[in-house]
Amino acid sequence: MGKKLFVGNLAFTTTGSDLEAIFAAAGTVESAAVISDRESGRSRGFGFVEMSSSIEASKAIQELNGRDVGGRQINVSEAKEREGGGGGGGGGSRGDRPQRSAPPQRQERQESAPRREAAPASRDFGDDFADDDIPF
Predict the structure, then answer these.
(1) Contact assessment for residue 9 and residue 46, using Cβ atoms and an 8 Å cutoff
(2) What is the pTM of this model?
């Protein structure tokens, strides 16, 4: 199985084919992809390259990390597994994530004293205030 590498700080014009050509100097490239924005289709400035072996992946990191590509110094490192979140999106399968537990059941309150009657919803102030008393 190959070793996946993260490639960051890519020029927005860099394509998956460009990445494949650059990394081919370090060994056999199994796949190369530049990640793009779902809505605009524009490059997000990073991508992933999968090398055929760990040795070739290490060689690629040593040779290409910090190299100038398209006027930018690229960052090459071993890709890490995604940890949770990652922005919006929604729905879809929950995969292997644990199911959320239900909230605790609410227990009925034991009444030790009789309930008080609620205050009336509105009060009648009667003629205590006249419209003439308001200084507007």
Answers:
(1) yes
(2) 0.60
